[in-house]
Amino acid sequence: MSLANGRLHMALPGPSVMPDAVLQAMQRPAPDIYAPELNELTQGLIRDLRYVAQTDGHAAIYIANGHGAWEAALSNCIAPGETVLVPTTGIFGHGWAEMARSIGAEVEVLEHGRTTPIDPDRVRQALLADGGQKIKAVLAVHTDTSTSVRSDIAALRKVLDEVGHPALLMADCVASLGCEEMRMDAWGVDVLVSASQKGLMVPPGLGFVWFNERAAAVRAAMPRVSGYWDWAPRVEPEIFYQYFGGTAPTHHLWALRVALDMIRAETIEGVWARHRSLARAIWAAVDHWGAPMVLNVANPAHRSCAVTAVRISPPDGDRLREWCSANAGVTLGIGLGMGDKNDPTASGVFRFGHMGHLNATMVLGMLGSVEAGLHALDIPHQSGGVTAAACQISAEVG
Which domain holds residue 294? Predict the structure, then answer.
């Protein structure tokens, strides 16, 4: 017998759980794309996208996923033959590096492994070694979704300023935006990229790029930018369709309007606090279950508040995911990019996605399903992880 009937709980690190109100906002006929209402809607979305990123800069919307946002950011700032520095903490850093190569950039990778954040001192040394200042941008992933490592973006700006290097600071916040603290202007980020399907609680399909005046000046000096990726007409359109390089993604825009309203109502600081509290509950459960289960990131200060990667004996990660899906209606994330010589397929890794539309009941239910799976599969653990999580939640809310 299976108890997976009912609504599936998506504990993936994106696409995340979408609020009913967001889904319902899309249930309407196609609009007149030439009517003024869509223009007004888009202007309001851009205003609130700036709020989520905590910036007074520009915001451009693309019909794309996070990979499209990567390419858009690079296409406006990096010409073929120019160099970028990419400190990596997982496969998404390497993915952004590969995207840079695909547009003709020279790429210097600073490999940091899969358990620790970007080391500002290593970035400092790379910048100091760049005597001719060939490096045009530092590409840093705030939270790598594969490893759940979170890096200190503000510390990278401090390094750039101390060294006096003119490179742009570009931050990938696909997994972190709308989940954990990001202050684009205060932290000195020049270009920030994200997408709709994680903390913003909207179906996949929208990519976002925010940029400041430093980045705008770089764009203005570019020899060419492809028509679709060019952000200039998107932020200063002469006619409405230029916001999107063509027909507007109307139903995604209605969904995004509702999602941003929800974030505004909670406040962005409230959203960050909620994600921190729920993440700590998950960590408490995993710590209580104990060996052989261990959090991929040892230091809590370096852990993401949106996704948590967990190591366990192979192939128990796969076994646990399959049991939870088939018997409890919970979908956990795979060990994406986490294979090694001892576990090539990462069958001993799984990930909790805890981003976006999430509350204590959802987290405790997810953890209860995992603990049931641990019992059913006879995977070694110490019972009581859900209780540990409940106690943590009790402490968080006072």
Answer: 9-16+268-397
